[in-house]
Amino acid sequence: MKNISSKRAKALAISQKTKRIVYDRDEGLCVICHRPGLPEAHYIPRSKGGLGIEQNIVTMCRDCHRRMDQGDGETMQKLHNMVGVYLQKHYEGWNEEDLVYKKGEEYGLRSHQRDE
Predict the structure, then answer these.
(1) Where are the chain's structural domains?
(2) N or C: which end of the chain has fewer CB within 10 A?
(3) Which of 2-11, 26-35, 55-64 has the lowest mean pLDDT?
């Protein structure tokens, strides 16, 4: 991972270890359209304090990632909902509040993937 100075920036960044875990979980395919993708899409965006943990990261192709981040409101909401349902299926007790940076908390890699 790049040399990141602030605690918040470190917590929001996606480590190589997390990218590998997410890539394997998603089998290297976009969770929306199932084309090859990269494990770098935040469910809760970094701009809103979304952590770089596997419970907040999914693999997406460039097109779907762009549509989720910059599409029209309806498309963005639809894709966001699809990703949320996908993550809920993979993590027991998954909760959006746990995906947001909170000042003063310690953050590290949390792995609570459901056994399938």
Answers:
(1) 7-91
(2) C
(3) 2-11
